[in-house]
Amino acid sequence: MNFVYATIVFFSGILGRENGMESTPSDCLNTSPNITSLARCLDTFTVPRGHYNAFTYGVAQPMGTQRQDWKTSLNSLLSIDGNCTLASVPPSLRGLYDISLFQDFCVLYETASRLGTYTKGWGFMIVPANRRDISRSVHISVPHPKFDGTVQQAASIFQSTGSRTLLVAGRTRDAFFSPSGCIQPTTESQVYYKTDPVHNNVRVWGHIN
To answer: H or E element: which one contains 41?
Structure first.
């Protein structure tokens, strides 16, 4: 199954480039055979190492009511029981994020991307569509995609344990080489960046934790 999935994604990318079309996060919901494959596919759009400069990092930050509306969207997923359409993103997030049904799960994910990278990089969240499928009130978080294991490992644990949520950051911890002012390093060689959600409290990702 993994080989077949990888082959589909590979040839879809080739055909997309030949036709002048760019793959988007929404394509992941159409091509992924299961929840771990979906998480892996969405993770391919994660903002990579050194992607931002001061200007582009500022543009990618939430503006106006977006920070509060993001928190509202996360919390709305927690109240879902059987119908993903009962949760919707606020106006300030439309065109950037959407909530969709994927098999037995509801997914809040970023729809906007450019050249294979998330436009904002605030992350994605997955919850069971039906509360009966929640075995324990456990929240699985992935603050460091591309580090500390893999996103698909977290997705597998989320599904196999019947956990309540899976929350994955949309940027690598070193997407912006600017030190965080939240925590002071204990050694000269130690650096914590602004895009590391564990070491920066001025971010969107951590509102659910």
So the answer is: helix 35-43
Burial class (CB in 10 A: 0-12, 13-18, 19+), 46: buried
Burial (CB count <10 Å: 0-12, 13-18, 19+), residue 117: middle
Tokens 């082959």 found at: 7
- Taking only the tens place, the pLDDT of each residue in 176-208 is 988 877 767 676 666 777 888 765 665 555 544
What are residue 186's phi and psi, to 5 degrees? -95, -15
Instruction: Output the CA–CA distances (angstroms, integers) from residue 60 to 116, 143, 192, in the order listed.
Output: 15, 17, 19
**Are 90 and 75 within 8 A, CB to CB?**
no
Decide if 25 contacts 109 (C-beta within 8 A). Answer: yes
Return the amino acid letter for 19: N
